[in-house]
Amino acid sequence: MTTLATGTDTLTRDALTVLQPGFAGTSAPDWLLRRLGEGLASVGLFGRNIASPEQLASLTAQLRAERDDVLVAIDEEGGDVTRLEVRTGSSFPGNHALGAVDDTDLTRQVAFELGRRLAACGVDFNWAPSADVNSNPDNPVIGVRSFGADPDLVARHTAAYVTGLQAAGVAACTKHFPGHGDTAVDSHLALPRIDVDPAVLAERELAPFRAAIAAGSRAVMSAHILVPVLDPDHPATLSHRILTDLLRGELGYDGLIVTDGMEMQAIAGTYGIERGSVLAIAAGADAICVGGGLADDETVRRLRDALVAAVRTGDLPEERLADAARRVRALARWTASAATSADRGGAHTDIGLVAARRALRRTAAAPCPPLTEAPYVAALTPVANIAVGDETPWGVAAELARFLPGTETGSFAGEDAGHAALIAAGERRIVAVVRDEHRHPWMTAALDILLAARPDTLVVEMGVPQAPPRGALHLATHGAARVCGRAAAEAIAGR
């Protein structure tokens, strides 16, 4: 096995070490294995790389056969953002559901069980949890990925999540520093801006990150957001004031700083990935996450060469690149040590369903008996944000069909959604499933139509329950994970 790159100079090896690229397919391509031999120290996994736990374990073993200390990272938040169960929906509710329950021990148990499953598949670095305070209800990209809108609640659950995940031997990566909750723009698409005064930033956005640092979070992920009160010229990922002066200096953080995906338009569309990567390392980042959209050897080569060239021209101090590479290797040493000392007992395989049931909130204007006949499930479906993706199934229909065989479903969107759903349902009882009704006027209009024509309609809100509850029965699941759908289906069918 190879633990150090061979055949490459120190500068080139360090440039490869700080990259966290992705790739296509369910086995490692030859170019990736070759780069591991040359110094690449991390690999990022996405849903496209995972078919089953057994296949994932085989893939990570293939990577470690080439380099035994490789960091294998994944974007596995549980809830709406799942890669481990991208084709079925997650066995774990997301942060918003855990925040709704507000039991930090439960959050720790959920994070531990998720970490235990990742570790069993050979994954040792998780780009989670989201520590963003979802203070802006119109936020299009955070939403149910946040524990909530209260900074103290988010802080204590962030700490609990970090503790649980790392007890399983998986490094936590708390994100998105300095806080992506008060945005109305998705940084996958453009550069968001947060205009707050220093006091609000310190008390709201930074509180969960202080808690994560105190809990020993091994990594922190930067956000591609502009915070003028901190740096009027550079997004956080590229800001020395934010990453070095604030995160390292004022907050005393000494772990790994990872960028959010560099191909996101907030960076790629303004600076380009090569210049952006150089500026990020110079600002204080230690690892460049890339691979959600750009997943090939050419991307690795371009970024490696850009970093090497920047050192040689004096745009990037060689000692800064060397320090970044040192921090990557230090995290790899921690994961190797944590893997041998992690708590492998205490498995609680159904903890996700337990949590989803506890997170369910039921509102009924009058007693609403359980359904006994198969309904029609009208899913009022918004466009999925890029972080969540559109591969993962959501809703209640599949779970409800287990209890009420013959349940049918359809997906509806746009101005005609309400009328179309009424026609499709016919005489059957309607279960209307929504996701962030408060952010989608067409969805509100569709519910108005359904409830006017069929007042006995049941409503299931699987996003942030910001809109007033309505319907014969209103269920708020606080997320769209498969287990959240299961909990709602149990309530509808009286199981």
Structure description:
The protein is of the alpha/beta class and 495 residues long. Helix content is 41%, strand content 11%. It contains 18 helices and 14 strands. The chain has helices spanning 10-17, 30-38, 53-66, 95-101, 104-120, 151-167, 198-205, 207-214, 240-250, 265-268, 273-283, 297-313, 318-341, 351-359, 397-403, 417-425, 441-453, 482-493, and strands at 19-20, 42-45, 71-74, 125-126, 171-177, 219-222, 256-258, 288-289, 361-363, 376-380, 408-412, 430-434, 458-461, 473-476. The protein has a 6-stranded parallel beta sheet with strand order 2-3-4-5-6-7, sandwiched between helices. A 6-stranded mixed beta sheet has the order 9-14-13-12-10-11, with helices on both faces. A two-stranded parallel ribbon has the order 1-8. Helix 17 links the parallel strand 12 and strand 13. Helix 6 (151-167) packs parallel to helix 8. The radius of gyration is 23 Å and the shape is globular. The termini are far apart. 57% of the residues are buried. Mean pLDDT is 94; it is low at 1-7.
Distance between the termini: 52 Å
- Beta percentage is 5-15%
- Radius of gyration of CA atoms, rounded to a whole number: 23 Å
- Which overall shape is indicated by the principal axes computed on the Cα atoms? globular
**How many helix segments?**
18
The helix/strand class is alpha/beta
Low-confidence segments, ≥5 residues, pLDDT <50? 1-7
Helix content: 40-55%
Secondary structure: number of strands: 14
Task: Average the pLDDT over all residues and give the rounded result.
Answer: 94
**Major sheet size, sense and barrel closure:** 6 strands, parallel
Strand order, sheet with most strands:
2-3-4-5-6-7
